Amino acid sequence: MVGAALGLITLFPFGYWKKTHAIHHATSGNLDRRELGDVETLTLREYQALSWHRRLAYRFYRSAPALLVIGPAYQFLIKHRFPFDIPFSWKKEWASVLWNNLALVVAGTVLVRTIGWHPILLVHVPVVLIAGAVGIWLFYVQHQFEGAYWERQENWSADEAALHGSSFFDLPRWAHWLTGNIGYHHIHHLASKVPNYRLRECYESNALLQRAPRITFISSLRCARLKLWNEDAKRLIPFPRGTRREKLPAAA
């Protein structure tokens, strides 16, 4: 109920988000189950097998403007209103979307009639888009780093995906507080029922948890150049240079 109520402010239909986020937790790092709730990631071989126009589309999708500018607007204003990436048989999730849309229409109508549409466009929409860009970036760098974890189904492990495929985003303490300690993302994936205010304590209590891939704000900026998963080298790499089909890099 709290999640559904907060969805009126965050523009998130809570039931839809809960389901897709659970799928993300259950499939993160699994090359054979790249489904919902994640940034689409192709392998080097898959990318090289694409036609030129599909390569161009993937390059655009993985570009910073698409992820941080177009992405938040699409995610909050369009996709969450009409999530056609889920089947209609998911009745509870579709109900949460429809109720969220209805609540937003009612709230929006009341706001327009009381304060006008200018303040809504000038205040709420920019806040949503800026917060959305920050949120997408936080989520992006917590799974898209050079030594991330991706495996085929037969070798995939949920624990390995949590500990090695989710980063520890080492932020200043005030930034951890502001973001609900989401920087301890590997612990969140390992045990999602740990409340956010216990994540730091959990991290400091176990040396194994402190070995997770560590990323700082500065080092996170370098993650933006990583676009493809090299299955041989088992690491994320930038796009190959040139237009010809390059040979696969040798494993490290």
Verbal overview:
This protein is mostly helical and 252 residues long. It has one domain (2-237). Helix content is 54%, strand content 5%. It has twelve helices and five strands. It has a three-stranded mixed beta sheet. It has a two-stranded parallel sheet with strand order 2-3. Helix 6 packs antiparallel against helix 7 (117-141). The longest helix has 25 residues, at 91-115. 23% of the residues are buried.
Give a brief description.
This protein is mainly alpha-helical and 252 residues long.
Strand and helix layout:
Layout: H1 2-10, H2 14-27, E1 42-43, H3 44-48, H4 52-61, H5 64-79, H6 91-115, H7 117-141, H8 158-165, E2 168-169, H9 173-178, H10 185-190, H11 199-205, E3 214-215, H12 217-221, E4 228-230, E5 235-237
Parallel strand pairs: 1-4, 2-3
Antiparallel strand pairs: 4-5
Helix pairs in contact: 2-6, 5-7, 6-7
Number of strands: 5
Outline the biggest β-sheet: 3 strands, mixed
* Poorly predicted ranges: 243-252
> What would you report as the Rg, rounded to the nearest angstrom?
20 Å
Question: Structural class of the secondary structure composition?
Answer: mainly alpha
Q: What is the number of helical segments per DSSP (H or I, 4+ residues)?
A: 12
Helical fraction:
40-55%
- Name the average pLDDT: 89
Distance between the termini: 49 Å
